[in-house]
Amino acid sequence: xxxxxxxxxxxxxxxxxxxxxxxxxxxxxxxxxxxxxxxxxxxxxxxxxxxxxxxxxxxxxxxxxxxxxxxxxxxxxxxxxxxxxxxxxxxxxxxxxxxxxxxxxxxxxxxxxxxxxxxxxxxxxxxxxxxxxxxxxxxxxxxxxxxxxxxxxxxxxxxxxxxxxxxxxxxxxxxxxxxxxxxxxxxxxxxxxxxxxxxxxxxxxxxxxxxxxxxxxxxxxxxxxxxxxxxxxxxxxxxxxxxxxxxxxxxxxxxxxxxxxxxxxxxxxxxxxxxxxxxxxxxxxxxxxxxxxxxxxxxxxxxxxxxxxxxxxxxxxxxxxxxxxxxxxxxxxxxxxxxxxxxxxxxxxxxxxxxxxxxxxxxxxxxxxxxxxxxxxxxxxxxxxxxxxxxxxxxxxxxxxxxxxxxxx
Length: 409
Hints:
twelve-stranded parallel beta sheet, 409 residues
């Protein structure tokens, strides 16, 4: 095995060819370039300290390479690199920007317990074998836009702090994010999950966006904590989807947009012990979706007369009345099938109120007249659509008084 030793006066290894290069424990204090270099056999950079900018752009690692425990004090350029064999960055410290954009990782890749103190840039890279970021910490922005994960991607117990971007990322194997701590705005817009997408026991403290994401395999959000806005608008769920809060957080009411979601197997979609006080559902065909122990927002001037409604009616300035009425109908059918009867009456009342007040079209000139003079209005006034029977008694009493007064006259 040949050993390559760094020299302070030699910082340019551009285009060089190395065989079994061993830099273990070395210290590079000057700016260093390995642009377009070729590394054959086993390459060892473990515990190396790079105290100046390092440029590996275009390099080829044709055998196993070990950067475990390495420290990069200044920017690191690994753009457009091909790693043909196993690569190990476990416990590495990237104290400045780490550029891995448009690179190809052909074999097992290990970034477990690595720390990124600045930007971690992996956008448009391709992982052809399993990759692990297990227990890694991104103290700077994490960029995985348009990344292609051809097999399993392990982000278990990872920590994202300022920003995480997985827009349009393709997960063709299992996407494992369980027990992750996501302390920042996170984007999964238009991401593709071909197999299991496991976000169980995750904690999201900031907004997270799954809009237009496509879940072909099962999606697991059991025990998840959402503290701010979550967007699933126009996502597609082709398999099972389970969403439940973690123990001790059942009282939280996160704001979630679950609108126009395509459910290919609604019977496999389960919301368990979830508060719908701030969840919008407009445009989603609920079908046989399971709503276990749901809590609905209440509406009404007085506590005694408050009724269960859907958040869409409260949150939207002018919700489409037809879609809103259909949503109420779908939810009631869903709850009846599940044997949940607690809020059925209130939701029926709310649906009737929507139908009483809705326009018949954009040019409905009789809207205001019909709103107060229609069969819905009669039912509302006389018995509250069957939910306020005391109104019928009051109406009968009033009619009797009128009749008696007329007779006495």
